[in-house]
Amino acid sequence: MVSRGLPTWLRGLAQLRYPSLVRALGEWRFELDLLDQVRAENPGAKIEHGVLLVGWYAGALRLGAGSTVCRGTVLAFGDPGLGHGRIEVGARTWIGQYNNLRACADADIVVGAGCLVSQFCTLVTSNHGTHRGTPIREQPSDPQRLGVTMGDDVWLGAGVTVLPGTHLGTGAVVGANSVVTKSVPDHEIWAGSPAGPKASRQ
User: What is the mean predicted confidence (pLDDT) over 164-192?
Assistant: First the structure.
């Protein structure tokens, strides 16, 4: 048994002569350790491998019992320039694959309970200013539009973008590939770019 496994083990060991592979393995190990820390802070939630945490700090993420964050999703909490924010997800909420949730200082993301966030959605909590004379990347956030909040039982179709300063009411539904630029009332179905009302849930 050992002799059969030894050649494979030695072949694996031989790969360590490649610095780029060793560096990639070290980064992967760091990411796994970070995910383990986040899981320890949120024992009732499921966080799949392949979730990317950017700017995470202890207490930055709160996941309700029975919630799920799927592989490929980016959870960003800010940076030293814009400051750091928080992301809070309610119980039994499902955040699908390859979503992009971006918080920053004074601009949190709060998602209610029992929500469905389909694949490739973006929730962004702040925009840079656009004044002339200062490079865009150096401009502070627009203080007039900050944060994203969602009530309970909200469904975002695939590819939805939710812009800063918006609230999606309880039971709201947003159609695929829509861009939400203003708040959506409770139990309304919106779609389009920019999104607008299409119907009410019966």
Answer: 98
Domain span holding position 169: 15-200
Cα–Cα dist 191/177, whole Å: 8
Closest CA relative to residue 151, chosen from 174, 175, 171, 181: 171
User: Count of domains in the chain?
Assistant: 1
Residue 6 lies in a domain: no
Give the pLDDT confidence of 60-96 residue by residue, as tens digits.
Answer: 999 999 999 999 999 999 888 778 999 999 999 999 9
Look at residue 2 and tell me if it is in a domain.
no
Instruction: Put the strands of the sheet holding 161-162 in their side by side order.
Output: 52-54, 74-76, 100-102, 122-124, 161-162, 179-180
Q: Would residue 45 count as lying in a domain?
A: yes
- Which CATH number goes with the domain that contains 51? 2.160.10.10
Query: Does residue 7 lie in a domain region?
Result: no
- pTM for this structure? 0.85
- Residues 6 or more apart whose CB falls under 8 angstroms from that of 178 comprise 157, 160, 161, 190, 191, 192, 193, 195
Reading phi first (left if > 0) and then psi (alpha if -120 to 50, else beta), residue 66 is in left
